[in-house]
User: Fold Histidine phosphatase family protein from Streptomyces nigrescens.
Amino acid sequence: MSADTPRRIVLLRHAKAEWSDSSDHERPLADRGRKDAPVAGRWLAGAGITPDLTLCSTSVRTRETWKLAVHELPQRPKTVYEERIYEASLGELIALLNETSDEVNDLMLVGHNPGVHALADALSGEADGDLLPRMNRSGFPTASVAVLTFNGSWKSVEHGVGRLVAYWTPHE
Assistant:
């Protein structure tokens, strides 16, 4: 692959989860989350986004979010459930992206805050219009999506490498 191969990173925060007595990892989606996740999937489909590969946290709420969202896409991408996403730091998320095969052009990561928001912010060296301030003001609420582009190898992903080209929340 060429050093200027265009890549796309799609970051999806899990939809609204219930607060329950079960462990944080086992929290299911709330009613609102079950409504918002398919809406996020429809937004992705409408934006022409079908990832080559999805990395999804192993938590119940992220798996449920992805299951509901992916049914709205025209194709089912390969999905890997990755336990390292749960409670990952920014550095750990970047390291995970760096491990991605260069055969993948469009990668989706389904995860949690504060990691997903921190990753979108850190990778955004540039942004279209007011997307970056809007994303940062909103705090990246549940079921939100950020889309970043960059050129090169996944091994080159680092702070400031990308351009934030889309940001969507279900309640705008």
Notes: The first strand starts at residue 6 and ends at 13. The chain has one domain: 6-168. The CA atoms of residues 70 and 76 lie 7 Å apart. The chain has a mean pLDDT of 95.
